[in-house]
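Input structure tokens:
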């Protein structure tokens, strides 16, 4: 499965454009993490791009979310490593993140929401003007982008990356695809 095929599968299964943007943002952060940690950039990127492919199909059933996704991506022919990372990114199953790829996806996923919210409160709503420091401040404000699970983001420590560093990496990665994100 190459990137183009992965994107086509996402577009075939997901109508909500914000959800597609979330997966593109996760892909960008995953690629940056792969570069940092010596992972396979294409593999890690595809894990990010596909990770929520089942969200509309599972209609909010958290016991099904990511189980179906893992099955779907296996059928598409992705590696077992990617399928496992997708399966365990949903904490509801209680399947621990084991590999670096699992752990990377787990903490990259909620970071996208915090960064997007950080951009949207700027006067021009542009990622280009978003400072990692202001995202770091918002991190402490629990009511801000409350859906962006802070504990989950902070698991970047398990990758050997400090929170400030992780936020900066995420902001830079998302700035790199700002046009695709419409931000
Ligand atoms: Fe996600």
């Amino acid at each position: 499965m190459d990137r183009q095929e992965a994107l086509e599968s996402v577009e075939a299964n997901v109508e909500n454009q914000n959800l597609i943007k979330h997966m593109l943002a996760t892909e960008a952060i995953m690629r940056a993490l792969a570069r940092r940690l010596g992972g396979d950039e294409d593999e890690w990127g595809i894990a990010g791009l596909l990770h929520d492919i089942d969200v509309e199909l599972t209609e909010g059933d958290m016991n099904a979310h990511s189980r179906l996704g893992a099955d779907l991506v296996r059928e598409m022919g992705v590696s077992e490593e990617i399928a496992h990372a997708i399966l365990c990114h949903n904490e509801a199953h209680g399947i621990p993140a084991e590999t670096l790829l699992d752990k990377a996806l787990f903490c990259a996923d909620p970071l996208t929401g915090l960064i997007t919210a950080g951009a949207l409160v700027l006067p021009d709503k542009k990622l280009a003007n978003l400072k990692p420091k202001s995202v770091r401040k918002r991190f402490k404000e629990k009511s801000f982008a409350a859906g962006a699970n802070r504990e989950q983001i902070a698991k970047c420590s398990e990758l050997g990356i400090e929170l400030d560093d992780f936020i900066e990496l995420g902001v830079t990665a998302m700035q790199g695809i700002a046009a695709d994100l419409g931000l």
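The chain has a mean pLDDT of 97. Residues 22, 26, 51-52, 109 surround fe (ii) ion (CB under 6 Å).
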